[in-house]
Design goal:
Layout lengths: L3 E5 L6 H15 L2 E8 L3 H11 L2 H30 L6 H4 E8 L2 H11 L4 E5 L13 H9 L4 E4 L2 H10 L1
Length: about 170
């Protein structure tokens, strides 16, 4: 029985396409949906900039406040996309129970959130925007398929890529 679906999104080009699958499955199973977006750490360059321009006493405060502001901004953007997608009266928005933006590496965040929300199914695209070939499985998706203890509904994005290229 599928009661909770975890939808992992990178908020990329394919988000709208993926949301149709999420909405259809949530309706079919009368399941609630948790949306999760992993926010990659800023990396060495970001850390170096903060180190260079801030003194010790304000550095940590800035990092915490900055991360909180970014998380709030990303979450707001996700909510806007969801509202825009379902503005035509579809009931998809009602199945979404939570939007989570979590700092960390995507595979780690998705796997932890799947456990945290007791997900019965994960939904994600076959690859992110950074994947160079439409026929290649993305590294995050590949790892999730290998590690997940619950069913993974992977949406192939090859057809969607082709349709998008024709429209451009």
């Amino acid at each position: 029985m599928i009661q909770t679906i975890l939808f992992a999104t990178d908020m990329g080009l394919h988000t709208h396409y993926l949301l149709h699958h999420v909405n259809n499955l949530a309706s079919q199973y009368d399941a609630k949906v948790i949306v999760v977006h992993a926010m990659e750490p800023p990396g060495h360059l970001g850390d170096a900039v903060v180190e260079s321009y801030l003194c010790d006493e304000t550095r940590e405060e800035f990092k915490q406040e900055g991360i909180s502001r970014i998380i709030d901004g990303v979450k707001s953007r996700i909510v806007d996309v969801l509202e825009d997608e379902f503005i035509d009266g579809q009931q998809g928005l009602s199945s979404i129970r939570d939007v989570r933006v979590i700092p960390g590496k995507p595979v780690d965040v998705i796997m932890a959130q799947a456990i945290d929300c007791s997900a019965d199914m994960l939904i994600l695209g076959s690859h992110g925007d950074g994947t160079t070939s439409a026929n290649m499985l993305g590294s995050v998706t590949s790892r999730i398929l290998q590690m997940s203890r619950v069913p993974v509904y992977m949406v192939p994005l090859v057809r969607n890529l082709m349709e998008h290229a024709k429209a451009s």
